[in-house]
Known about the structure:
Blueprint: H1 7-20, H2 23-30, H3 35-62, H4 67-82, H5 90-118, H6 124-157, H7 159-184, H8 197-204, H9 211-214, H10 219-222, H11 225-233, H12 240-260, H13 263-270, H14 275-303, H15 305-325, H16 328-360, H17 366-395, H18 397-416
Amino acid sequence: xxxxxxxxxxxxxxxxxxxxxxxxxxxxxxxxxxxxxxxxxxxxxxxxxxxxxxxxxxxxxxxxxxxxxxxxxxxxxxxxxxxxxxxxxxxxxxxxxxxxxxxxxxxxxxxxxxxxxxxxxxxxxxxxxxxxxxxxxxxxxxxxxxxxxxxxxxxxxxxxxxxxxxxxxxxxxxxxxxxxxxxxxxxxxxxxxxxxxxxxxxxxxxxxxxxxxxxxxxxxxxxxxxxxxxxxxxxxxxxxxxxxxxxxxxxxxxxxxxxxxxxxxxxxxxxxxxxxxxxxxxxxxxxxxxxxxxxxxxxxxxxxxxxxxxxxxxxxxxxxxxxxxxxxxxxxxxxxxxxxxxxxxxxxxxxxxxxxxxxxxxxxxxxxxxxxxxxxxxxxxxxxxxxxxxxxxxxxxxxxxxxxxxxxxxxxxxxxxxxxxxx
Length: 423
């Protein structure tokens, strides 16, 4: 069966966001931003995702209009990046990133409701998986467009206009997504049953391979104050083994973001690489991770979930130490190898840990358990981005990378504690 044609609106939108993903950190560096500024930029976007997911979820349940959210979301992204040439200071860039993240969540939130309302319940998981493949293709194409565009235009117009003009490309892709969405998305018929946003949250919970695109959807249920308080106190229905897994995941994601949030500044400032190579590294990372998911599935089937998680954490420990030792003299051959390790270990970690969370969760609560896992990951990303940026500013990039490696060492035995086996 062919995919619905409205999927192409989200392919274009994800291409826009793929091209935009390294753009704002690179533009922050162009404006004179430090690693701490770039870490704050990442944290602002993550926090706005949280706020927006709570708001849009409630609004979606209160109305039957779907195209309105698509138009608002993608138009908001377009306006943010069309405004990039006018941005001259970091506080302005924080506002642009916050507005883009807030707007993006409107379109992201409605996407899964469109899938759920268009297919029978028994087809939800399979169709969400197919939809995410389309989104992943769009994201990869966007990264490739960003790499190609900056490599050509920066040489002609300089870095400033090379990055600003890429903002126009992002805006144009977002506007194209609006045009396709208006043409192809149909509003639900009067009287038709519409699944609530919470059902979308739980259905999406089983498909977390690319957390940065859909993770905030899980926070709709997981970040209620009562839920968070019970989680922190350990008074939940999930049991001590799963709570321990959440704490380990928090430490792991703090470590991940301590490295990757300020990494574009490290590559540009310390290694002297041009912007197009930062895009190229992201393309390679994404491509390797997609390929590695197949290897990860086989490894998990052969060795088990916890050994696969341990392998991922050991690989990232060595990788972070390698980043700390990277100098301009060895970066040309060492950095591509380390980024291949990054893509591979991400596939192993994400598949194995989400499987552990799913298997340790009580029957009927898998969606909520995965939602809380993503809430924990989101909070770890915020804390790690802030910590990594400011540690890099005050103690140097090697210090930030080595602290992250130490967090991997601390996290490893927590994940290996097995009070209850995971089949």
